[in-house]
Amino acid sequence: MISSKLLSPGYTATGISAAGLSANRERLNVAAANLANAESPGYKRHDVVMTAVEIPSVDGSFSAALDRNSLTAPSVAAVLEDQSPARMEYQPNHPLANAQGYVEMPNVNIVETMTDMMTASRLYQANATALQESRAISAEARKILTTQA
């Protein structure tokens, strides 16, 4: 029988990678929605607020105390609507134009949003690779432990 304490660091790494995948998937979804609505009058850009969540330790050892101070997983705390002013565009024939002929366009900066998407995509890929490596290491550890038992 394999001790759960021996495998807990692998599962912690798996949990951190999984949290990173989830958080960056949310960032990609929000960025995609912002891009899709970049020319939709009245739309407000959305921002993802990220936070670090502490990973609970398994035991009371010195190693666990160090882990408590260093192991955190990314998490989406909130998705907020950006309150910066809209871009006013002169389109007097538009049905949503105000009395002066201006339409309230989204405050979405396409270059900034694409950069955020690229960053989230790279972080997603990095977390996917870390998850695969963590699984491979755990599988090798299980092989070693079962052959020694």
Radius of gyration of CA atoms, rounded to a whole number: 23 Å
Strand order within the widest sheet?
Answer: 1-2
How many domains make up the 3D coordinates? 1
What are the secondary-structure elements, in order, as H or E? HEHEEEH
Number of strands: 4
Helix content class:
40-55%
Q: Averaging pLDDT over every residue, what do you get? A: 84
Q: Major β-sheet, in short?
A: 2 strands, antiparallel
Give start-end ranges of low-pLDDT stretches: 1-10
Distance between the termini: 8 Å
The best one-word shape is elongated
Describe the structure.
- This protein is α+β, with helices and mostly antiparallel strands.
- 54% of the residues lie in helices and 18% in strands.
- The protein has one domain.
- It contains three helices and four strands.
Key terms for this structure?
149 residues, two-stranded antiparallel ribbon, disordered N terminus, alpha+beta, single chain
